Each structure stands twice: as structure tokens, then as C-alpha cells.
Amino acid sequence: GNSVTQMEGPVTLSEEAFLTINCTYTATGYPSLFWYVQYPGEGLQLLLKATKADDKGSNKGFEATYRKETTSFHLEKGSVQVSDSAVYFCALRSETSGSRLTFGEGTQLTVNP
Amino acid sequence: GAVVSQHPSWVICKSGTSVKIECRSLDFQATTMFWYRQFPKQSLMLMATSNEGSKATYEQGVEKDKFLINHASLTLSTLTVTSAHPEDSSFYICSARWQRSYEQYFGPGTRLTVT
Fold it and tell me: Could A43 and B107 be called an inter-chain contact, meaning their C-beta atoms sit closer than 8 Å?
């Protein structure tokens, strides 16, 4: 079956530090990959996505590259801000699952000033 | 962009009562809506998938008689937690998609506390 594994949190960084949140997946075929962000007390917002191998999704300074060879989709940001503090979810949608999403466990990020 | 709203954003109810949560797609016709449950500091657990005009499909382990889902129109789905108990306290999130897209658009969530 499909699965998504994220690095364990919580992650605590100082402002302007470099961020990496690892995400690896297991799926048949060529899934679409997503990063969602959840701010405290809110629902999920799509942060970025990639639909095929070697695609790079980017938004708000965040980037992630779809690596088929390593089945990974790591989230990176060069300089985090306090406002980036949130929970980040990696997710996939497989070719055979229609619109159904499989989520990772989520990684709590706290950025201190 | 596609907007999904939920109402109420938070609700407190007494044990044994029922509570209804609404999920609305504000600017598109949602042929499919999803209901998720999220426990504190955990990931989202898909509870059920509902298609407009048909019965919802529940995930294994989700009690369909306890969590009643109705998707009567293309812009509204409701989740009713019947005979709520404290263990039903959770954050409930809906999402919606339209026919020609696989993308899901998420609502802001509803915090349910059962006392």
C-alpha cells in the first residue's frame, strides 16, 4: 500500500536558519507529491506540489524536489521566519487512488526569534 | 482560489447529545467531500468520502451510525456526531474537490469538545 514517512519532530530553529524536513514515500507507479502546512488551530493549506519525477515545487521560499530514485520529497527553506512556525505534512496521491491522499505524520516546526 | 468553509469553528456539547458540522464549498461545485479527524499532534485520519447525492463511503473502523454524513448538494456536506462522548472530542476537517480535478481543498476545521 501507499505510505509516507516524515522525519520526526519537533524541529526548533532560530530565525534565518536553514530548514530541511525529510519525507520519503512508498507507492506504486508515479504518485503526485504534496506539502501541506497547518497553522495553529487551522485546517491544512497546500504549500507546494510536484506531479512527476524531477519536478520542483516551490512557494513562499519553500522548495521540494520529486526524487524518484530515492522516493523522496524533502522540504527546504533557506531562511526561516517566526511566521513559518506550523505543522508540515507530506502527502501523496497515487495514480490508482483517485483523489485520495495519504499523509505523513506531520512535523512540528518552531522558529524562535 | 477554491474556498471551503466549516461551521462552527468550535463547539462544546454535553455527552449524549448530537452535534452537526457543516462543510461548504463557497466558489465551486464539490462533487466529492472528505471528512478527516485529527487528534492532538497527530496526522489526519480519513473518516469517510462522500459523493453528492449518494451514500458516504466510510473507512474501516469508522462507525457509520455514529458519524452520519450527508452530501445533499454540490456545495454542502454535513457530519453529525450522534450521541457524542468525550472520546469523540477532536479536530474535524473537511475537504472538497470538483469533478475535473483531483485536488482537495481543505476547510479550516472544527474543534469539538464533548464534556
Answer: yes
